[in-house]
Amino acid sequence: MIGAAGYTLFMLVIVAASVVQGSVPIFSFEGIGFLFGTDWNPVEGRESYGALPYIVGTLVSSAIAMAIGVPISLGIAVFISEISPPRIGTPIGFIVEILAAIPSIVYGLWALFVFRFWIVDFIERPLYEAFGGTIPLFARTPFGLDIFTAGIVLAIMIIPIISSISREILKAIPNSQREAAYSLGATRWETVWKVLFPYAKAGLLGAAILGLGRAVGETMLVTMVIGNAIGASAIPDTLFSPSQTLSSLIANEFNEAVTVFHSSALIALGAVLFIVTMGINVGAQLLVSRMVKVTPGAKE
Amino acid sequence: MNNTENSPHNVDHRKVIHEAIVRKNYKRKIVNRVFTGATIACVMIAMIPLGSILFEVVKNGISAISIEFLTQPQGSIIRGDGGVGPAIQGTLLTVGYASLIGVPIGILAGVYLSEYAGNSKFAYTVRFFNNVMTGIPSIVIGIVGYIVLVITIGSFNITAGAVALSIIMIPIVVAVTEETLKLVPNSIREAAHSLGIPKWKVTLFITLRSAKNGVLTGIVLAVSRVAGETAPLIMTILGTSLFFQGFLSPVDALPLRIWRFASQPYEHAHSFGWGAALVLIIMVLSLSILLRFLVLEKSFKSGSLVKM
Q: What is the pLDDT of residues A110-158, one digit of tens each?
């Protein structure tokens, strides 16, 4: 049994060891400049690899996802735990969890064939026509396969995880907090905003960061809608530019990589992704577990 | 506001304050209404994609599904011959294989953490990094399968895929097993121990047994999670249009097949993609709904346990 428990630690070690070992060739070839380069040329003899555009693409798409996903998730969590009676809240929680059970490849298929046309027609084109000439952020004819679409679909993907954890955290807040606020005459909004959110700050932040971890690592969905730009052009200059993330580039090129350096470069992207998500998750775990540690004593 | 000119000073003062309070309260009520409306809107917004996904998958997928689609290997995609038989077989085999590896290890580790380790440093470390593992992107885990098992064996193979998927499964099974075992009231363990039953028997036949549904929940959760995984399979089992050829050759899987179909320009490929998505969703969602019933049953049972 100790062996089994040890194995779970061993898995992490072997993940770290594999990505490090696999990325040794590219770092001996490109040096640390691999992280800051923008070229991506897998042609043998003229090989040159740089990870910067995909790091930027990952950050931007995740930022869009967080900006849209976090407020909506908090709204859902508040509705279920504070506003609706359990008779309505429980089924809604169940439905949101079904959203979490849908495989990301199915999201991708839906985003590619259905949702991206909604985004182009209802959001991107109106924005482009209204502000395309004045605000550089919108100055590109929207096509639907771009970083904005990827961000929105990622937001839909992370809503279930953020909202279900936030809901649990809100439920863990002792009722005395609510009663105190209501007895002072606070409205529901004031109770949530001025009492519950500050109380659960750390836990809610942790929930959001766990969602961020998901968004950063999500692969198939992003691969299908982000437009798959390569090299320097993958750094998005507008919201409606095609881009590429670390994970989507790996998925796109892994099976076509024939040279040692090409596959090693892709594995090194995985290593970057591993380090980033490790950092995100360790931080989130610390925050959420601090909140959960409050829970047992706080429950009435 | 225009009551300043005609009333005595103190009355005027009180009136102004009163009006200010009324106005302020009115504003607060409005804000509260807007806020309530906004949370309802959030719920609506989250429902739209779910509704649309299920609708589109069923609408576009149902026409592709036939006996031939479910059992035959892929023929000419331009004419729309054949089906996704190998992919369904491959998904079942790979996920089954992964469960064979992941479920025993996950349950053992969960039992250890809950029943044996207590609050030791080792247990804390395992617990912490186990939770961290659930957040490692699946594509990174695919790289592990590639480096450890594909390169050493020399070919894409089902074992690499199963090991990679088991690495995704284990943390989920561990966490859920531990949580459920902790819900079993201590009085049950104490009663068993007071009868002189050895600890391993108590754990296996009493504690684990009364937490059976919860543990099963963890397994179902993990299985439905990995059944839809695509990214790690790209680098481990590769995908093929043939049925299972042995443990040393590539196998196919539904998510992989959906991805390949979606990137082809043919109409039949897209229709096949929706069909495969429908099959996958039915597999995964039926597991989830099954799980829901297990959870309901569990909460009922543990409720009656506590009452004892």
A: 999 999 999 999 998 999 988 888 888 888 888 889 999 999 999 999 9
Whole-number pLDDT of residue A159: 93
Please give, rounded to a whole number of angstroms, the shortest distance from the CA of B2 to a CA of chain A: 29
Length of chain A: 300
Superfamily in which the A53-254+283-298 domain is placed by CATH: MetI-like (1.10.3720.10)
The answer to whether residue A207 neighbours chain B at the CB level (below 8 Å) is: no
Of A18, A99, A224, the CB nearest to B143: A18
The residue ranges of every structural domain in chain B are 1-61, 67-307
Name the DSSP letter for residue B73: P
CB B275 within 8 A of CB B69: yes
Q: How high is the ipTM of this complex? A: 0.88
Residues of chain B with C-beta less than 8 angstroms from the C-beta of A163: 46
Chain A residues near residue B105 by CB distance under 8 angstroms: 4, 7-8
Could you tell me which of A192, A155, A181, A182 has the C-alpha nearest to residue B34?
A192
| Mean pLDDT of the region A8-31 | 91
Q: How far apart are CA A129 and CA B111, in angstroms?
A: 60
Count the Cβ atoms, other than its own, within 10 Å of residue A27.
Answer: 17
Strand partners, A48: A41
Tokens of B104: 């025993």
pLDDT tens, A244-276?
Answer: 999 999 999 998 888 889 999 999 999 999 999
pTM, entire model: 0.87
Q: Where are the domains of chain A?
A: 53-254+283-298
Pull the structure tokens for residue A119: 């985004």
Please give the CATH number for the structural domain made up of B67-307: 1.10.3720.10
